[in-house]
Design a protein that fits this description.
The chain has 124 residues and is mainly α. The chain is 36% helix and 6% strand. The structure holds a DNA duplex (13 and 13 nucleotides).
Length: 124
DNA sequence: CGTGTGACCGGCG
DNA sequence: ACGCCGGCCACAC
């Protein structure tokens, strides 16, 4: 991944915003059966306050040529808030179940234990 | 070019 | 415990 996102004080002509690629790169690396949160990714990218941008980036994930496991990204409560943005609302839950993640009432069971922190796992 | 909005988060009453 | 509000950044209108 590119790691060039944190320094951008004056929105220079850095148009090739690597934000998407960075987010995608992180999401892709989420191990099967694990989940993470928007905030964690944002934090890893250095913009922890801008967790919204991560969500926005995910919204564009369908445009990516790669297969982005967006289902493994949930909010801080472990709730599948973005399910409505999938092909069908059930798709996200289904994919997660296929990963071995148990979903109950649109929320990841044992989310705390399945949580995958990129800042730690990748940064190691 | 101003305003509104979002798959969020943290703080405060 | 619950709900509201501000902040953040990029994009659509």
């Amino acid at each position: 991944m590119t790691k060039k996102t944190k320094e951008n004080p004056k929105k220079q002509q850095v148009k090739e915003y690597t934000f998407f690629e960075d987010v995608f790169a992180v999401v892709i690396q989420i191990p099967k059966g694990r989940v993470t949160s928007y905030g964690a990714i944002a934090n890893y990218l250095g913009t922890k306050m801008s967790a919204r941008m991560v969500g926005w980036a995910m919204n564009a994930s369908h445009s990516s040529l790669q297969n982005i496991p967006a289902q493994r990204v949930v909010n801080r409560n472990g709730m599948l808030t973005g399910k409505n943005h999938f092909a069908t609302p059930k798709r996200m839950e289904e994919l997660l179940k296929k990963d071995g993640v148990v979903i109950k009432n649109d929320t990841v069971v044992d989310f705390n234990n399945l949580f995958w922190n990129p800042a730690i796992e990748i940064g190691f």
